[in-house]
Amino acid sequence: MEKNKDWILMEEADWHFRKLVRRFVKERDKISVEGVSLPGLLILKTIERNGEQRLGDLAEVLDFTSGAVTALCDKLEAAGFAVRQRSRTDRRSIALNITERGRKMLLRNQEVGTCIIDLLFGTFSQEELIQQIHYFKRLNESLVGFSERIDELVGHISEGPAGKGGSPASRRNRDFISY
Protein backbone atom coordinates (compact mmCIF):
# COMPACT_ATOMS: atom_id res chain seq x y z
CA MET A 1 0.00 0.00 0.00
CA GLU A 2 2.84 2.40 0.81
CA LYS A 3 4.31 1.89 -2.68
CA ASN A 4 0.93 2.84 -4.16
CA LYS A 5 1.00 6.14 -2.23
CA ASP A 6 4.53 6.76 -3.47
CA TRP A 7 3.43 6.03 -7.05
CA ILE A 8 0.52 8.47 -6.79
CA LEU A 9 2.86 11.15 -5.44
CA MET A 10 5.41 10.46 -8.19
CA GLU A 11 2.70 10.74 -10.85
CA GLU A 12 1.58 14.05 -9.39
CA ALA A 13 5.18 15.32 -9.22
CA ASP A 14 5.67 14.24 -12.85
CA TRP A 15 2.51 16.08 -13.93
CA HIS A 16 3.54 19.30 -12.13
CA PHE A 17 7.09 19.10 -13.51
CA ARG A 18 5.87 18.68 -17.11
CA LYS A 19 3.33 21.48 -16.62
CA LEU A 20 6.07 23.75 -15.25
CA VAL A 21 8.39 23.07 -18.18
CA ARG A 22 5.61 23.62 -20.76
CA ARG A 23 4.46 26.85 -19.10
CA PHE A 24 8.01 28.19 -18.80
CA VAL A 25 8.77 27.53 -22.48
CA LYS A 26 5.42 28.99 -23.56
CA GLU A 27 5.93 32.17 -21.50
CA ARG A 28 9.61 32.47 -22.40
CA ASP A 29 8.77 32.29 -26.09
CA LYS A 30 6.35 35.23 -25.75
CA ILE A 31 9.11 37.53 -24.46
CA SER A 32 10.94 39.70 -26.96
CA VAL A 33 13.38 42.51 -26.28
CA GLU A 34 13.84 44.83 -29.26
CA GLY A 35 12.67 41.98 -31.48
CA VAL A 36 15.02 39.42 -29.94
CA SER A 37 13.69 36.39 -28.07
CA LEU A 38 15.18 35.37 -24.72
CA PRO A 39 17.14 32.49 -26.30
CA GLY A 40 18.52 35.03 -28.81
CA LEU A 41 19.59 37.26 -25.92
CA LEU A 42 21.35 34.29 -24.34
CA ILE A 43 23.28 33.75 -27.56
CA LEU A 44 24.32 37.41 -27.71
CA LYS A 45 25.27 37.42 -24.02
CA THR A 46 27.39 34.29 -24.49
CA ILE A 47 29.23 35.85 -27.43
CA GLU A 48 29.70 39.14 -25.58
CA ARG A 49 31.16 37.31 -22.59
CA ASN A 50 33.24 34.65 -24.41
CA GLY A 51 33.90 36.06 -27.88
CA GLU A 52 32.85 34.60 -31.22
CA GLN A 53 31.23 31.19 -31.03
CA ARG A 54 30.80 28.33 -33.45
CA LEU A 55 27.12 27.50 -33.85
CA GLY A 56 27.60 23.93 -32.63
CA ASP A 57 29.36 25.21 -29.52
CA LEU A 58 26.47 27.62 -28.83
CA ALA A 59 24.00 24.75 -29.13
CA GLU A 60 25.99 22.66 -26.68
CA VAL A 61 26.69 25.42 -24.15
CA LEU A 62 23.12 26.74 -24.14
CA ASP A 63 21.47 23.32 -24.46
CA PHE A 64 19.60 24.23 -27.67
CA THR A 65 19.19 22.08 -30.77
CA SER A 66 21.42 22.94 -33.71
CA GLY A 67 18.28 23.82 -35.71
CA ALA A 68 17.14 26.24 -33.02
CA VAL A 69 20.56 27.91 -32.92
CA THR A 70 20.59 28.27 -36.71
CA ALA A 71 17.12 29.86 -36.72
CA LEU A 72 18.04 32.22 -33.86
CA CYS A 73 21.30 33.20 -35.55
CA ASP A 74 19.41 33.93 -38.78
CA LYS A 75 17.14 36.33 -36.85
CA LEU A 76 20.04 37.97 -34.98
CA GLU A 77 21.92 38.47 -38.22
CA ALA A 78 18.86 39.84 -40.04
CA ALA A 79 18.36 42.38 -37.21
CA GLY A 80 22.02 43.45 -37.43
CA PHE A 81 22.87 42.24 -33.91
CA ALA A 82 25.24 39.47 -34.99
CA VAL A 83 27.26 38.40 -38.00
CA ARG A 84 28.47 35.03 -39.25
CA GLN A 85 32.12 34.90 -40.23
CA ARG A 86 34.94 32.42 -40.63
CA SER A 87 36.20 31.35 -37.22
CA ARG A 88 39.44 33.01 -36.21
CA THR A 89 40.60 29.80 -34.54
CA ASP A 90 39.44 27.35 -37.26
CA ARG A 91 39.12 28.89 -40.71
CA ARG A 92 37.10 25.86 -41.89
CA SER A 93 34.19 26.61 -39.56
CA ILE A 94 31.70 29.45 -39.33
CA ALA A 95 31.33 31.40 -36.10
CA LEU A 96 28.83 33.96 -34.90
CA ASN A 97 30.05 37.26 -33.55
CA ILE A 98 28.21 40.17 -31.99
CA THR A 99 28.06 43.49 -33.82
CA GLU A 100 28.40 46.93 -32.29
CA ARG A 101 24.64 47.29 -32.69
CA GLY A 102 24.19 44.04 -30.75
CA ARG A 103 26.49 45.27 -27.97
CA LYS A 104 24.54 48.52 -27.66
CA MET A 105 21.24 46.62 -27.54
CA LEU A 106 22.56 44.40 -24.73
CA LEU A 107 23.79 47.46 -22.84
CA ARG A 108 20.36 49.12 -23.12
CA ASN A 109 18.71 45.95 -21.80
CA GLN A 110 21.29 44.73 -19.31
CA GLU A 111 18.75 44.47 -16.47
CA VAL A 112 16.39 42.09 -18.32
CA GLY A 113 18.09 38.94 -16.99
CA THR A 114 18.04 40.28 -13.44
CA CYS A 115 14.33 41.08 -13.74
CA ILE A 116 13.52 37.62 -15.08
CA ILE A 117 15.40 35.83 -12.33
CA ASP A 118 13.85 38.08 -9.68
CA LEU A 119 10.33 37.45 -11.02
CA LEU A 120 10.87 33.70 -11.00
CA PHE A 121 12.78 33.26 -7.75
CA GLY A 122 12.61 36.53 -5.80
CA THR A 123 9.73 35.46 -3.56
CA PHE A 124 11.55 32.39 -2.21
CA SER A 125 13.56 32.43 1.00
CA GLN A 126 17.25 31.61 1.00
CA GLU A 127 16.48 28.17 2.47
CA GLU A 128 13.85 27.50 -0.22
CA LEU A 129 16.31 28.52 -2.95
CA ILE A 130 18.95 26.17 -1.52
CA GLN A 131 16.38 23.35 -1.52
CA GLN A 132 15.31 24.16 -5.09
CA ILE A 133 18.89 24.13 -6.31
CA HIS A 134 19.41 20.77 -4.63
CA TYR A 135 16.27 19.29 -6.22
CA PHE A 136 16.96 20.81 -9.64
CA LYS A 137 20.44 19.23 -9.57
CA ARG A 138 18.97 15.85 -8.60
CA LEU A 139 16.37 16.05 -11.38
CA ASN A 140 19.07 17.02 -13.87
CA GLU A 141 21.19 14.04 -12.77
CA SER A 142 18.14 11.78 -13.21
CA LEU A 143 17.91 12.92 -16.82
CA VAL A 144 21.44 11.75 -17.68
CA GLY A 145 20.89 8.74 -19.93
CA PHE A 146 17.11 9.02 -19.42
CA SER A 147 16.12 8.20 -23.01
CA GLU A 148 18.47 5.20 -23.13
CA ARG A 149 17.04 3.83 -19.87
CA ILE A 150 13.49 4.27 -21.21
CA ASP A 151 14.43 2.46 -24.45
CA GLU A 152 15.85 -0.38 -22.38
CA LEU A 153 12.77 -0.48 -20.17
CA VAL A 154 10.46 -0.58 -23.19
CA GLY A 155 12.49 -3.49 -24.56
CA HIS A 156 12.08 -5.44 -21.31
CA ILE A 157 8.35 -4.75 -21.14
CA SER A 158 7.75 -5.93 -24.71
CA GLU A 159 9.71 -9.12 -23.95
CA GLY A 160 7.44 -9.91 -20.96
CA PRO A 161 5.09 -12.92 -20.80
CA ALA A 162 2.74 -12.89 -23.80
CA GLY A 163 -0.82 -12.06 -22.93
CA LYS A 164 -0.07 -11.55 -19.23
CA GLY A 165 0.86 -7.85 -19.36
CA GLY A 166 4.02 -8.37 -17.32
CA SER A 167 4.47 -7.69 -13.63
CA PRO A 168 2.60 -4.92 -11.76
CA ALA A 169 5.82 -2.90 -11.85
CA SER A 170 6.12 -3.27 -15.61
CA ARG A 171 2.42 -2.38 -16.04
CA ARG A 172 3.03 0.80 -13.98
CA ASN A 173 6.09 1.60 -16.07
CA ARG A 174 4.19 0.97 -19.30
CA ASP A 175 1.45 3.33 -18.10
CA PHE A 176 4.11 5.87 -17.22
CA ILE A 177 5.73 5.60 -20.64
CA SER A 178 2.47 5.84 -22.54
CA TYR A 179 1.66 9.40 -21.59
TrEMBL record:
<feature type="region of interest" description="Disordered">
    <location>
        <begin position="157"/>
        <end position="179"/>
    </location>
</feature>
<dbReference type="InterPro" id="IPR039422">
    <property type="entry name" value="MarR/SlyA-like"/>
</dbReference>
<dbReference type="InterPro" id="IPR036388">
    <property type="entry name" value="WH-like_DNA-bd_sf"/>
</dbReference>
<dbReference type="InterPro" id="IPR036390">
    <property type="entry name" value="WH_DNA-bd_sf"/>
</dbReference>
<dbReference type="GO" id="GO:0003677">
    <property type="term" value="F:DNA binding"/>
</dbReference>
<dbReference type="InterPro" id="IPR000835">
    <property type="entry name" value="HTH_MarR-typ"/>
</dbReference>
<dbReference type="Pfam" id="PF01047">
    <property type="entry name" value="MarR"/>
</dbReference>
<protein>
    <submittedName>
        <fullName>DNA-binding MarR family transcriptional regulator</fullName>
    </submittedName>
</protein>
<keyword id="KW-0238">DNA-binding</keyword>
<feature type="domain" description="HTH marR-type">
    <location>
        <begin position="1"/>
        <end position="141"/>
    </location>
</feature>
